[in-house]
Amino acid sequence: MGYEVAYDERISSLKDTNPVLELAIRTRQTATRKPLGQILLDMGLVSSDNLLLALEAQSRQVGYLGDILIARNLISEDQLTAALARQYQTSYFTQSQPLPDPVLIDRLGLQRCLQLQCLPWQRAGDVTVIASARPAQFEQHRGELEALFGPLAMVIIGEACLHNALLKTRRNRMKLWAETCVAEAESCRKLHSRWFGNVLCLCAASLVALAVIDPLRVMMALTFLASFFLLINSILKIAAAFAIHRYRPKFVPPPTAANQFVRHRKPVVSILVPLHNEPKVVRRLINRLSRLTWPRELLDILIVVEEHDHATRAALATCELPRWMRVIAVPDAPLKTKPRALNYAMLFARGTIIGVYDAEDAPEPAQIHKVVACFQSGPPNLACVQGVLDFYNSRENWLSRCFAIEYATWFRVILPGMQRLGLAVPLGGTTLFFRRDILEALGGWDAHNVTEDADLGIRLARHGYYTQLLDTVTLEEANCRPIPWIKQRSRWLKGYAVTWLVHMRAPRQLWRQLGPRQFFGVQVLFLGTLVQFMLAPLLWSFWLMLIGLGHPLQAQFGSAVMIGFVTVFLLSEAVTISVGLMALRSRAHRHLRPWLPALHGYFPLAVLAVYKALYELIVAPFYWDKTAHSDHEAACDSLQMARSTS
Question: Which of 25, 116, 598, 610 sits between 20 and 30 A of 584, alpha carbons compared?
Answer without folding.
Answer: 610
